[in-house]
Amino acid sequence: MRRCPHTFCEPVWRYRQQLLSPLPAIRAWLFDNGSLTRRLQHACDGEFRVEVVAQEWQRPLLNERRRLALPARRLALVRQVYLYCDDVPCVFARTIMPRQTLSGAERHLAVLGNRPLGALLFADPRMHREPLEFTRLQSGERLFAEAVQRLASPPPAIWGRRSVFYLAAKPLLVNEIFLPGIEKL
User: Fold this and answer.
1) Where does the chain bind substrate (predicted)?
2) pTM for this prediction
């Protein structure tokens, strides 16, 4: 485990060509550029659902602020959800939506409720997505701690990916953390 000067470490995000570690059984899930929501819905033989864990205005993590070029004290709407297949949590998603992104036609993003964000993003012809970044999370990292809250026995490490989406040139950052349940799909 990395030693950190703070209570929780920040994840280190890398592009695909920078990954050095062998990838787990979820490789196809990690590298798929399509809609994760749509892929989960198709892979899930039973019921797919979204559970909103939290949605509030807060200061994003340092790496999230840097990725979105937000000033240090700027608040953003942070939405955290679990994506379930048959009551098994498969993905933890954390979305960072700057205030300016939630203006005009995009203000509906602030009131999604249990509707999946991915379905809206990929249905919008104005959507543009930057390349995916990847990370391996482990105990001691805040994102790991938040992602494994619903797991009875968390694994030692989990994989995640993120990308910045643009709607009408307005950015939002989507972190998708893959939980062990994804390996059964």
Assistant:
1) 79, 117, 176
2) 0.94
